[in-house]
User: Which sequence fits this backbone?
């Protein structure tokens, strides 16, 4: 049974930082690309960042590029999202998701329906 458990969310002031973690179990972590998405109230779930099997394959939404960093630790089956210079518009529930590497392409990496498993989400609130 695949489980993805996010942690690290919370309330932070604008300009602050948070690090989200997503621990995976029940799958062979090293053959899955990992992604972060977010969903604000009344809005669609949107792509934030994704990482392929190695640290060299990272991709970001334009809205977070230069402020967020995605990384993974295959020994710990964990993916991270370091968020800096946070803005009120970053407020959302953040979800991690996994996609088998064989289906990870420039066309699929940013599309939520193409991911195989999802976590329950963690709330990030940025106050102004």
Assistant:
């Amino acid at each position: 049974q695949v489980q993805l458990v996010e942690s690290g969310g919370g309330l932070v002031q604008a300009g602050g930082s948070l690090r989200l973690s997503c621990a995976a179990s029940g799958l062979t972590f090293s053959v899955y690309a990992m992604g972060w998405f977010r969903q604000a109230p009344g809005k669609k779930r949107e792509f934030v960042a994704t990482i392929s099997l190695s640290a060299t394959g990272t991709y970001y939404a334009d809205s977070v590029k230069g402020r967020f960093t995605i990384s993974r630790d295959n020994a710990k089956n964990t993916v991270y999202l370091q968020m800096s210079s946070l803005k009120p518009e970053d407020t959302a529930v953040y979800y991690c998701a996994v996609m088998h590497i064989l289906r990870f392409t420039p066309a699929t990496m940013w599309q939520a329906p193409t991911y195989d498993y999802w976590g329950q989400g963690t709330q990030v609130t940025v106050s102004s």
